[in-house]
Design a protein that fits this description.
globular, mainly alpha, 3 strands
């Protein structure tokens, strides 16, 4: 780690860069999108949807904004990037400001239908034809027989105890909190360095292992590594970092031996649900596609549909499968993932990260992903699939 004296010298050498980085850090603390896009009334809406025989589209309520979007936009674009002398770093910060500004537009239009959806497209994009073909390729495989490890018998309290024990392998604190306003069963809040666990949910043994390697092994590892970097952008996030971060997290599931065909199919359903948005499908249309045509049980089909339709059309979920494909191919070419674990970074900016290393503005990671040390996957079907994704 960089000592305090060295960091002070760095800040003097690159004073303008650190000032802009500090300003952006202060501004982006307010805009964690997942804190706003998850509905407050998911369970009630779900019960009503089921009672209507899947015909009445749910009406969701969302948290209120805690910031002034216009003021935030103005402050983003008031940063004097021309003061950053290095062209590559200046371009990186320009991309970052556009990325965060698009994120603000997403948040301020949550619940406004197409307006939110088009803003979501700017941040997360839409599935490509190859993404859809990859999803369909995975879904054509017959289901594997269920094992005892797949039975949902553990409570949220059991999950907390499991994660507490798992995190002892890592040299950072684990803060677990329970939440009811979540689309996922567990997720990391980067801002508060907290692992949120969905209350009143049952977990399987395999799911606990999967979530531990996904949420703790990657999302918290990159959270804490990012906090140790000289520049705050490593903690707050590079543009388009979600695809890389989720790809790393699912790859961690694979390397640990936790990834299953069922899980890959779940990621494939998410791609199809995201793709249904561009086709103009309503909530009940997407649910019908997943539940009636693909025969997924109604609770899982509702969850996948909710994740895609929350806010008015949220395409983030399409990135898990494409992220896994890109990270898997990256691993085939170069096994060290250290550059990608320096914080909330993106594959597309790996060259910029190397430039920052060369300037002394990035440092070697402190926390490593334990699953990456040895490939524990024994499922040959998964190997075949990953090797043949387009």
């Amino acid at each position: 780690m960089i000592r305090e004296k060295e960091r002070s010298a760095l800040q003097n050498t690159y004073a303008d860069l650190f000032e802009i980085d500090h300003n952006l850090n202060r501004l982006v603390k307010k805009i964690e999108l997942l804190g706003y896009v998850n509905p407050l009334n998911t369970e009630t809406a779900k019960q009503r949807f089921f009672a209507s025989k899947y015909t009445e589209n749910p009406v969701f309520r969302y948290p209120k904004l805690k910031f002034d979007p216009y003021k935030l936009h103005r402050l983003f674009f008031s940063q004097r990037l021309e003061r950053i002398e290095d062209a590559a770093i200046r371009k990186l910060y320009q991309d970052i400001i556009y990325y965060y500004s698009n994120m603000v537009q997403c948040i301020e239009t949550i619940g406004e239908g197409k307006k939110f959806y088009y803003n979501s497209l700017r941040v997360y994009g839409t599935p490509t034809e190859k993404d859809v073909q990859n999803a369909q390729f995975i879904l054509h495989y017959p289901d594997e027989p269920n094992s005892h490890d797949m039975e949902k018998v553990f409570s949220a309290q059991d999950a907390k105890a499991y994660f507490d024990d798992f995190s002892k392998q890592y040299d950072f604190p684990l803060n677990v909190k329970f939440s009811t306003h979540m689309a996922a069963d567990a997720m990391v809040s980067n801002v508060s360095q907290t692992l949120l666990v969905k209350k009143n949910t049952k977990f399987s043994k395999n799911q606990l292992l999967t979530l531990a390697h996904h949420e703790i092994g990657v999302h918290l590892v990159t959270t804490y590594n990012g906090m140790l970097q000289p520049l705050k952008i490593f903690s707050n996030g590079f543009p388009k970092n979600v695809e890389t971060q989720e790809g790393l997290a699912v790859f961690s599931e694979y390397m640990s031996g936790a990834l299953t065909l069922k899980r890959l199919k779940e990621l494939s359903y998410r791609v199809l649900a995201s793709d249904s948005l561009i086709k103009g499908y309503s909530f009940s249309d997407t649910f019908d596609l997943i539940h009636s045509q693909y025969k997924l049980n109604r609770h899982d089909a509702f969850s996948i549909t909710l994740r895609a339709h929350r806010g008015g059309g949220f395409t983030k979920d399409r990135l898990y499968l494409s992220g896994l494909r890109k990270v898997y191919k990256r691993y085939q070419a170069e096994t060290s993932m250290d550059n990608l674990l320096t914080g909330k970074v993106a594959l597309a900016y790996e060259e910029a990260i190397k430039v920052l290393y060369g300037m002394g503005l990035a440092e070697k990671i402190t926390h490593h992903n334990l699953a990456y040390q040895k490939n524990c996957n024994t499922n040959k079907t998964l190997d075949f699939i990953l090797n043949n994704l387009k």
